[in-house]
């Protein structure tokens, strides 16, 4: 069963189309990364899947429930962590979480118990009684995620969960997300514009100007854009280039004092390269295509470049 399935999903505003013809399939238990530059349509998509924004085209189901016909059923099965934190700074984490649960009808005892459990999951239990205003940015974000987990959702939506955090806090959040998926089997649907973070996802969809331009595992997407690049530094580059061409029959180029050779599997080529190049080799590096290359390949831009007009 799929956690998320969309067919032709779209959202048009009066003067702009935010999302067009979106066909997505997210199997249960996947960490799915929705990757795209600012303004690509990521938040609008999350808003539609979480039943906060009404689509103007197509259909979608989340946790097996139709977003248009059964929005309340969808809401019961999902957690949403938006870009803006919604916790009260003057309350402790436990108070924030249990008040929230009580508001939704849980008994005080159950609310406290569940708050304790989700704080454990997000590694905040030790500071659970401190006021949130004493937390670091990373701890606050983990508390936001803990809140999204309170009613044991099947699918957790996270809009830019690591934006603005330092690398250590980002890594910590990723460790928690991996644990969540592995131990609790939760499907995680997140947006990000950090390409390196998308590597943590089992599957990604690249969205640009409201449409998906590529979808697959990070490894699959990278393998479709090109080969590895093997770079050699040698004592005699001209001789090395000649040897690679004549001995191995491969195209080799001299760029920036490096001998560069393209190969499907760069690492596997290294022994043959070293043997063919009889001159001393001082370094060998294998550069794999990155998600940057994937984005560039499909959109003709790097992810940081402005998106332009979505109309
Ligand atoms: N309520 C609205 N009315 C008109 N246009 C909108 C509205 N909401 C979003 N848009 C437009 O739709 C496009 C997609 O916006 P969206 O917020 O979904 O992008 P995003 O990928 O989430 O970007 P960001 O990372 O900046 O949030 C943008 O061009 C935006 O200006």
From TrEMBL:
SMART domains on file: AAA (SM00382)
Location, primary (coarse class): membrane
GO biological process, one term: doxorubicin transport
Chain segments annotated as transmembrane: none
Pfam family, one: ABC_tran
UniProt cross-references to InterPro entries, sorted A to Z: AAA+_ATPase, ABC_transporter-like_ATP-bd, ABC_transporter-like_CS, ABC_transporter_ATP-binding, DrrA, P-loop_NTPase
Ranges of residues in domain ABC transporter: 4-234
GO molecular function: ATP binding; ATP hydrolysis activity
Membrane topology field: Peripheral membrane protein
Highest taxon listed in the record's lineage: Bacteria
Localisation per UniProt entry: Cell membrane
UniProt similarity note: Belongs to the ABC transporter superfamily. Drug exporter-1 (DrugE1) (TC 3.A.1.105) family.
UniProt-recorded name of the protein: ABC-2 type transport system ATP-binding protein
Organism whose genome encodes this protein: Cryptosporangium aurantiacum
């Amino acid at each position: 069963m799929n956690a998320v399935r969309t067919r032709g999903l779209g959202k048009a505003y009066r003067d702009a189309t935010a999302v067009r013809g979106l066909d997505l399939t997210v199997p249960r238990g996947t960490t799915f990364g929705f990757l795209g530059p600012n303004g690509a349509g990521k938040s609008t998509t999350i808003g539609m899947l979480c039943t906060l924004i009404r689509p103007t085209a197509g259909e979608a189901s989340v946790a097996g429930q139709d977003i248009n016909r059964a929005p309340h059923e969808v809401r019961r099965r999902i957690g949403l962590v938006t870009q803006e934190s919604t916790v009260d700074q003057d309350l402790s984490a436990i108070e924030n979480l249990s008040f929230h649960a009580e508001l939704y009808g849980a008994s005080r005892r159950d609310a406290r118990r569940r708050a304790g459990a989700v704080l454990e999951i997000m590694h905040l239990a030790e500071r659970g009684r401190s006021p949130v205003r004493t937390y670091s940015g990373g701890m606050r974000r983990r508390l936001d995620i803990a809140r999204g987990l309170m009613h044991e959702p099947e699918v957790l939506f996270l809009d830019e969960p690591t934006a603005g955090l330092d690398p250590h806090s980002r890594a910590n959040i990723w460790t928690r997300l991996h644990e969540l998926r592995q131990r609790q089997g939760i499907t995680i649907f997140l947006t990000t514009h950090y390409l390196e973070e998308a590597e943590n996802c089992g599957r990604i969809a690249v969205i640009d100007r409201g449409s998906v331009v590529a979808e697959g595992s990070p490894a699959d997407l990278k393998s479709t854009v090109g080969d590895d690049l093997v770079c050699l530094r040698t004592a005699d580059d001209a001789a090395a280039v000649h040897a690679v061409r004549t001995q191995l029959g491969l195209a080799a180029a001299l760029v920036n004092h490096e001998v560069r050779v393209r190969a499907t599997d760069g690492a596997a080529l290294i022994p043959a390269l070293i043997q063919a190049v009889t001159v001393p080799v001082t370094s060998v590096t294998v550069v794999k295509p990155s998600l940057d290359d994937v984005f560039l390949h499909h959109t003709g831009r790097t992810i940081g470049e402005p998106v332009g007009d979505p109309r």
